Structure formats: C-alpha cells, structure tokens
Amino acid sequence: MQATSLRNPVQQIRMIMRDPLLAIVLLVMIFFVIVAILLPLLAMIGASVSPEGIPVFSEYLTSHVYLEIIRNTLVLGAVIGTTGTAVGFLMAFVQVKLDVPFKRFMHIVSLVPVISPPFALATATIVLFGRNGSISRGLFGVRYDIYGLDGLAIVMTLSFFTISYLNLRGMMLALDPALDEAATNLGANKWRIFRTVTLPMLMPGIASSFLLLFVEAIADLGNPLVMAGNYEVLATRIYVTIIGLYDTTGAAVLSVILLVPSLSVFIVQRYWISRMSVVSVTGKPSGTPQTIDHPFVKWSLFGLAMGICLLIVLIYGTIVHGAFVTVPGVRWDWTLDHFDFVINGIGSQAMRDTTTLSVIATPIAGLVGMVIAFLVVRKEFFGRSALDFGTMLGIAVPGTIIGIGYILMFNTPVSINLPLLGDIDLIPKLTGGRAVFGGALAIVLVYVVRSTPAALRSGTAALSQIDPSIEEASISLGADSARTFRRITLPLIRPAFLAGLIYAFARSMTTISAIIFLTTPQTKIMTQQILNEVENGRYGNAFAYCVILIGIVMVAISVLYFLVGSTTGTEQRIEGGL
Amino acid sequence: MRKFFHHIPLTLIILSMLLLVIAPVSAQEDTLTVLCTPQEDWCVEMTAAFEAETGIQTNYVRLSSGESLARIRASQEDPEFSVWWGGPADAFIAAKEEGLLDQYESPNAEIIPDQYKDADGYWTGVYVGALGFCSNVDILDELGVDAPTSWADLLAPELEGFVAMAHPATSGTAFTTFWTNVTLAADALEAEEEGTGYDEDGAPTQAAVDAAFEYFAQLNNNILQYTRSGSAPGTLAGQGEIAVAIIFSHDCVKLQEEGFEGILTTTFPEEGTGYEIGGMGIIANGPEPEAARMWYDWTLTAAAQEIGATVNSLQLPTNPDAAISDLAVNLSEINVVDYNFAAAGASRNEIVERFDAEIATAPTE
Fold first, then answer.
1. According to the model, what pLDDT value does residue B139 have?
2. Among A244, A367, A571, B17, whose Cα sits 20 to 30 Å from the Cα of B255?
C-alpha cells in the first residue's frame, strides 16, 4: 500500500484526533467489526474448544471419512477459484479489450448470475443435464451422472464468476491506455503488453477474485446440497451435523476445521497482494483502451465467451420456463399455479420481509465498505490492517459459521454489570423468539456483514489504482476528511461503490447459509422457502420463487444504476463506448 | 443523492446508535408459536385452522427435526417456541431425555393407542407413516424390471446406479430404513435359533446389525447417491434420475398427487417395512403455555388430524376416529415390522458412524 507509515502510533492518534469526525467514524467502524463479526466468531470458537469439543477434534482429524471430506472441500475451492477467475477474466477481457459484437449482451448476461438464488442453477442444470436431462438424455441420449465435482464445478463457476468479472472489468477499465501506448511505442507486441503490462497490473484483482471464489466455494451450502451427490464437503457436513446428528459441538469443531483453510487462503492472498501491488499514477484513464485485433485470438475468445453466455441464458431460461410448467423436466403443461402459490400463498410474507431487510442492509453495507476502504488505504492509524482483516472476516468466514455464532452470541442480551447502575443491556437479544424486531435486526446485521467485504475489496482495489496526491491536494486546499471523501474519493471510486451496492443487495436476497438458523416466526426469508420447495421436489414452486426473486433484484439494480451510476463523465464515456 | 452523501458519517452514527437503543418488542397476549416439522403447506393449514377455531394468533416456523432440536437446545434458557408439532419420534425421545419437553397429560391423548405415545406423557404421536418403494414406471420399463416388492428386489443387477435413499446421518427416513433391516435380520436369526436375533432386553443383537450392514453393502452397488433429505430420493425418481427411491410411502403419494401421477408408483416390501411416528411435545418453560396446551389437545382431535389429507400429506392419523383418506396407506394392509424405537434411538449414533465409514464413504473422483 502506498501510505508508508513513518509516524509512531501516538503521532497517528494525534493526527486522527485533529479531525474529530474522522475519529468518530473510525470508532463506529471498529465497534461494528467487533460486535457484528468478532464476537459471534469468538462465541463459535469458544464452543469448539470446550472440554467436549477437544476430543472431537482428534476424532475427526484421524477419521478417513472426515479427511476425505476435508480434501474434497479444498479441491472444490481450488477448482472453483481457478475456473471462476478464468471465466471472469475471459468475460472482462472480451468486454474491455476486444472489438466484437454482442458485448452489451455479454455484459448483461455476465451480471445475471450475481442474482443466483440458491438451488436455482443447480436444479435447472439437473433438469437440463442430469441423468434424465432434457439435453443430455433428450438430445444426446446420454445418462450423464452430473452429481459430484464435475456438476459442482459447472454450477458454482457459473454462480460465482460474476464476482471476478466485476472486479477485473473494473480494474481493466481503470488501466491507463497510455501505458499500452507507451509499450507499443517501445516496440512491444500485443502479447508482450498483455504479459508484462496488463497482467501485472491486474494481479491484485486476479488474486482477490481467486480468494473470494475459493472462500465462496468452500462455504457454499446451496449448490452442494443439490448437486454434490456423494461428493461430500465440509459445509454440507456441518449442516448435516446439526440437522441430522443434533450435534452442536461437532458442528462447531467442523466449523473451525472449515475456518482454517478459509482464513489461511485469505491471509496468504493478502500478503501476496500487498507485495505485488502496482499503482497507476493518474486518477482516471485517459484515452480509449487498445483492442486486440489478431483474428484467431479475437474470435476464439469471442466464441468461448459467447458459449458461456448461451449456457447461462439456457439455464436461466429453464428456470423461467420451469416456473410456468407443471413439473419442470417431466410435464411441460403450462400453468400459473406456482406463481399463485408464491404470490398469494406462503411466499407473500417472505417476499416482503426479504426485500425490506435487503433494502435496509444494502446502503449500509455499501457505505461501510467504502468508508473502511478509505480509512484502510488512505489513513494511518494503529490497527489499520486489523480493521481491514476484521471486516474481511465477514466473507472469509463461511455463512453457516456466522449463523451459528450469532445464535450462540445474541440469543441472550449482552449486558455488563456496572457499579450503582446494575446490569445494563449493551446489546439486546437479537436472535430467537422475542428478539428485537422479530430477529430482523440480526438478519440485517448478517446481510451487512456478508456484503461489506465485497464493497471493501472493490473499494480498496479502486483506491489502490488512484494516486493519493489528488486527495492530498484537496486536503492542502483546506478540505477536511469528510469533504475530501465525499467530493474526491467517492466520485472517483463510484463504479466500485455501485458494484458494492449491487453485490450487497443481490447477496442479501440470495444468501441462505448465514440466515438459515436466524429466521423466526415473525421473519420469513425467501431462500429458506426455496429450500423447502426443492427438498419437497416441487421444482415449479422453487423456480417461481426464483423468478420473482430475480425480478426484484433486477428492479433494484436498475434503481441503483439510476441513483449511483452513469452520472459521472467517466461512466458515460464507458457506457457510450460500448 | 448529493445531499445524501453529505450525511454519511451522521447516518452511520445514527444507525449504530439505533443498534444499541431499540427496546425489545414485548410479546403479545393471545398468540402461539409453533415449531412445525412436516411440510410447509400442512403447517399453514394447521395453524390457520387452529387460529380460526380458537382466535389465538398462531405463528409457525418450519424446520427439519434435527434443526428443530438444535434450535430448542440453543434457546433452552429462553425458549422461542411454545409447542413442537410433527417430525420423527426419535427426536422427541432425545428432547425428552435432555429435559427440553414439558410433561402434559392431555385428556385427548387417552384415545391414542399406547404404541404411538410416550408412557410418561412427554410426547404424543400425531401421525404414522410407513416406508415404501417409490418407483418411476417409465424408467423401470426401460430397464425391464418390475416395481420391487421385497428388499432383495432392490439388489437386482439391472438397478445398478438406479436406486437412491437418504443418508442415515441426516435423515430419519434413512435411519428407519436401516433399522427396519436390522429388525428383519433379527427376526430371521431368531427364527433359526432362539436368542441369536434379540438379546434379553428385546433389542436386536450385534449379529443382526452386522447382517443389516451386509445387506446395505450389497445395496450400495445399486445406489446412485445418498441424499441429505429423507424425501429427496422421491424427487429424483420423479425426475427420472433414478428408478427406485426408498422413502416414506406418504411422500410418494404426495408426489403423485402433485404432478407425478402416472409416473410414480408405490410398492411395499413383503417381508415387512418400517414406520415412523410423528411426535408432538410442549417445550419446557416455553412462552404461552396455556395456548400450547390448547394446541396439543386440539391436534389430537379427529377433525384436526384430517387436515393433512387436504394438502396431500397422507400420513395416517393416530386418532382412531379420524377418517383415513382413500389415498393413504393403511398400516393394517401391509406387513409392518415390530419396530423397537428405544433400541433404535440407543444405537443410532454408532450405526450412523459405521454406515459412514463402511458403506457411504464418498468414492474418489
């Protein structure tokens, strides 16, 4: 990072105290990280290292069944990290560096999987490519056993590559074409430019998307529940340990085992990224990116990208189509029963609740992410990396673990005993029956915790590309931190902010693992309803839920684009250029 | 929008203050919170009917039985639910042993046969269901085999990769399947030589358990996958992914009623099949104990037990006066094993672990 620390902590604190607003914001952020992330996590770890938990550790780590599960989990994470990043890179590269038709179409299709309701992609893929799939069996007459690592790789890559696409596309757009021009003038060919200029500049983005995808993959519950077959992973095993064996200690131990690869990958990536960070020296790129003209390279990349897009269209088409037929994959008679079931039946409250809570969580997550990114990249204070690390735990820690942690931590009010005043509730009861707002507050908190890291990452990536001297100039001209953040930083990183908001809303609407233990009688969440329908084999109802959920997210994204995006000159130029 | 950005720090401060000061919403009178384990639409109908009958505003949360138990345990100090309705009895037996249930001798429980309720009054059965084979007739035709009518039929080489059951670790259905075979093996051993099938307490012997493991090791050749949810194999069969699913027969009938009619067919093993009891219990120290007891009494009535059939939940009522749907499977018409719930519960963990290690270990890719 560019802000090399030369001052000692005391001086740093003095610097920050000169700007009281900054100090308050910083304290609020620290408070947020401690309460919403660290405390539940510690509660969880505490449960696993209890006297009952220790022997379970040695039992699991010597059993070949569990070692196999751990191996499966790591393989899955590595596979999805690689394929997801590769696909994301391909789509971003085609978008920014190639002059080909249908780019707008491909861009939109690449964004669609950000809204992948759990189970939807997997279920639709089974309908299409399963042992009795409409395509695999119907067209080719093959009974393809899709359950297992191969099916998971397809479904999870398609579900998650958008994270890396958005990340890398944002960075590629931010690359200064002047560098390419300079390299060309110095005699480098396109391949050499790609290898020695583009790729190194994008390395932090590639690394961070691998990180996000790896952790995402090993934490994912929805896809493995439907698609894994006998390929068991830790996330499903944890779920199963609670659902089937009624064993919370075992689940806590497995959670800690899952936490180890999540966190170590995360830490390794962080130090790697920070070592190889390359900073572009201008605020925003000037000129248009150079395109790749070599016909073979151009059209084979285009074909690949188009193939992926068509697959996504096919799968989402199956979801939409399936919502209107009696039994998707089996009976194709037209019906509206599924929508009737969701809209007028059980689903109406879930629709309302889920949307409301996501709408509340989205701006909070986006802003918290940007503010922390700003603090971490631009300010010097003791514990700066701890703040970043703490926030990132929200995604580095698998959802199931967060959920269990919340139950353990917030099922009773957190209180302190003060002399004279007696017990004072610091934090009211957030989960379970008679929790504040029927448990809705805990769900919003989880949504924020789960979405903030993506906003923080895209904010950090964007800020790292922008020279701090622009902000320093603002400060020199007399603006305070808040004004500088508002007038200089935020407009510069607006695409990252928008990406953060979109991700936060879509993520909140589609998350299942973190909230599965937090729903209460008063608060119903759509993803859990979808799980019920899938479990009961009512794919039609599940697809109808998914279609409605996708519709809600689409509307929200349009609103966000309208409010946040497309208003700066840069954005308009980029949009116009496509 | 620009205005909004001016107030970012202020907004954040206010929001975080909000986290601290909001007072808990006080519980309302005349309400009831039901923890509901059967299928969602049944939960909806039951709570709506109860609300109409009593005027008590009734909420429910639908959770699987394992999750329910974990949730009740986690909120033991300050229970969030008043009454737990539905789900396999072994979960209720476990809850009773952990002191999570309140004893309640409902006047309406008298009519329920003794084998369907707890002797100490901690839980009462609200429905019964039998295991069966749920087969896709088209796929069976293709493979050239008839719908299985015995456990041995499932071992046919034609069915390789075309059978599915749930995993006993995650599913009460699958555990019932396993224990049924333990019981059948015990009966067979007992028939050969007295004392070899059952021990003096009436629990199946280790030899019987070993024999069952042998059977499932053979069956493993034909199993495509062990699903997590008990009813999921039925969906696989409906979708044509497999030919035969081992599930509760009422789940198969429900699938038939909801789109798979003519595709799925239900058969039973002649040598005997297992069954489940759906339990109900009052959560210890739960809120709204009065309303919980009213619910308890009401769900044992014939009228309340007939609601399931209206949403295609065709488990059998435990109340002998309740009408049985034409679609439901009458236990008296099929061969049912003498299922020892206590012994099953006691050996559950051991069996599940051994199943994991010996049978269902995931094959390497």
1. 92
2. A244
**Cβ-defined contacts of A205-208 (< 8 Å, 24+):** A205/A164, A205/A167, A205/A168, A205/A170, A205/A171, A205/A461, A206/A85, A206/A89, A206/A164, A206/A168, A207/A269, A207/A272, A207/A273, A207/A276, A208/A167, A208/A269, A208/A273, A208/A457, A208/A461
Give the CATH number, domain containing residue B146: 3.40.190.10
pLDDT surpassing 50 at residue B59: yes
Cross-chain residue pair A485–B19, CB shorter than 8 Å? no
Please name the residue of chain A whose CA is at the shortest distance from the CA of residue B11.
Answer: A364
CB contact under 8 A, B40 and A69: no
pTM, 2 dp? 0.80
Same-domain check for residues B94 and B166:
no
pLDDT band at A156 (very low <50, low <70, confident <90, very high): very high
pLDDT per residue as tens digits for the range B272-297: 999 989 999 999 999 889 999 999 99
Residues A506-551 pLDDT 10s:
889 988 888 887 877 678 889 988 887 887 778 888 999 999 998 9
- The larger pLDDT score, comparing residue A135 to residue B2, is at A135
pLDDT score of A273: 65
Domain-embedded: residue A1: no
- Run of H or E including A104: helix A103-111
Among chain B residues, the shortest Cα distance to A520 is held by B61
Counted domains in chain B: 2
Whether residues B297 and B261 fall in one domain: no
What CATH number has the domain bearing residue A491?
A: 1.10.3720.10
Q: Provide the chain B residues 272-301 that lie in CB contact (below 8 A) with chain A.
A: 287
Which residues span the domain enclosing B327?
Answer: 31-128+276-331
Contact A327 B260 (CB under 8 A): yes
- Work out how many domains chain A is built from and give that number: 1
B162 shares its domain with B108: no
Q: Chain A interface, mutation test: which of B235, B244, B264, B351, most A Cβ atoms within 10 Å?
A: B235
